[in-house]
Amino acid sequence: MEGFSLSKILNTIGATLAIATILGSNTNFVNNEELTVRASDTNTVSNESIDSWMPDKNLQKTIYNALHDLGQSVNVNGGYDTTSINQITPDMLKDIRYLNVNSKDITDLTGLQYATGLIQADFSGNSIKTLPDKIPGNDNLYSLNIGNYALSSTSPSWVLSNKVSFNNTTSTYTDINYGFNNKSIGGTFTLSDDSLVYGADKKTAVIPFDKLFEGFKQSDGSFKKVNPTVEIKYSSSENLSPIVNTNKNEIELNLNKITPSTSIQIQFTVNATDNGSSYSTWDTLDFKVPESDSVITDPMSPIKASSVASITPLSTGNSNVVTKNVSALNNYIRNTMMTDTGIYSGYMTETQKNDPDTDPDMFNEITESAGLYLETLAMRGDANAFDSYYAQVKKTFSNGDGSFNWMYNTRTKQKKQGNASLDDLRIIRALTLMQAKSPSTSRANEIKELITGFKKYSLLNGKMIDGTFFDDNTKEPAIRLCYLDMQELKYVYGEAGLSQKDYDDQLKILQNGYLGDNFPWYQTYYYYGDMNGYKAGNYSTLPEAKGEVNSIDSLLVVLHLAQINKAKPASISWIKEHVHNRTLYNNYYTDGTPVEKNSAASTYAITAMIASTIGDKEMYNDSIQDLNDSQVPSGYGDFSGCLGDIPSMKSATYNNLTALLAYYY
């Protein structure tokens, strides 16, 4: 199991409210010259020919002459001693402050974006057709004249800066800018927060016309207001019927039937005319419906932390739980897999760790592993080790706002900007278990902080979701059923004063995912909103392998139901039989046929937890015996002690951590 699973399957639409501007068919707006914007990156072109990153030969000559102008260069050598244009690199352009443009035949300014120190340049005698994607000079720029230029809907937004001037050659318009909101006409741009005016209950919204089109820009930078004509082309949501109100000059939206966080797409036209100047476009508006401001009228009754920690472990005094096996596995995790930031997701040899060509994903550390190890320390009752390791987890993964980035890579030093709700909930569970056994004020404060973060990032309108992307606050309107740890949720909801009805509705979602007594497994996902080709209210199996269910997913569902005494008898009987016969396989079709007859140690680890939760000693012993048989004996170096495959020298951390946890259940 890996965190944030749905986000790795789906390409979700961003949370920003954007208009993708598309040139319309107005015959008064004609541009026969196609303008292209070339994106370049210094790191990728520094060793390439100048022709690849600055294709205009005449611009190359201008830059070459500028680099030999000792009066304006700021580098310590007083100018570059280059003897050939081919010796110019993007890094050299940083030193150019002024450009005296003698050439009259420059048409392409691609490459000039590397002149980050540019103060002033004049290309007024040239007809420019192609521009770089970034403005030359950045904040250093005082003025830039780009000569004769045809303003187009694909122009980069920086051409509208008051530092940039040009002779607009679009025949039907003489001013600088059509009145796009935020003064941008290129690509996709973000509207201000108040562009959609929501009703008090977030069930209605209006888009004022002037948020789409401000008017015609005048020479002094102001906009001459006009009343555009707006026509809706279509809406991507079947439940949304936008209305164009010409009396109020606004688009009206009824959001009552729209699921929060559903992506809405509206295509519309805007037409405006003033003194012979005209504008027409066919635009696309993308946005997500916000959550309602909920009022809790039926708060969940609080429960004590000890209610979560009420399990009587079957591991205590059990001869199958061999001390040397547990120690060997624990030593493998601590000595081979653990770093000062987390736990690697899979086994690597020392050679692989030091090899720059090793797959970067091998260096991933995830909150799933952190939570499992914390839960193990809590079950073991080791408060000092728990608090020490939790401090490390917080340092590595915390987003600073009560939640955790679900992945950190030790090689790239990068974090994945988003949480996995199951992982956050498991960490809260571990803190709850530890607090029940060894109360502390600092731990109580941590639980409070994480519950606040859980409400913010792991709930959508009161119900648990897969997770949230931190960079744009996009919430995934779906839940992987195995994430619904109903016992810990009951504690969290009680501590936070959240709705009893929301909790009950989630329990129904979990129970209604049951496939049936003939094959007592569970669906994988439930959708709160339209997503991944499914409608709100639908269930699905694995989206990446439709028609298949994963045993770990279903076993976790059974475990979570068992913890609140809601597990189906048919599920328990089926699991017990297949554990005893060692026929519990990784993946099944929905009729119960195995996809392949392979088994993972983690499946038997979870069945051990289920057995201990319901007090079934026989099933617990069968599960533990399978884990013991899967363990690599001594004599295999740092691979010894793990649950892995000796021929391939592969071992998944999830298998090892769930097994270690099972030894303490």
UniProtKB/TrEMBL annotation:
It comes from the Bacteria. SUPFAM superfamilies: Outer arm dynein light chain 1 (SSF52075), Six-hairpin glycosidases (SSF48208). InterPro entries: 6-hairpin_glycosidase_sf (IPR008928), 6hp_glycosidase-like_sf (IPR012341), LRR_dom_sf (IPR032675). This is Uncharacterized protein.
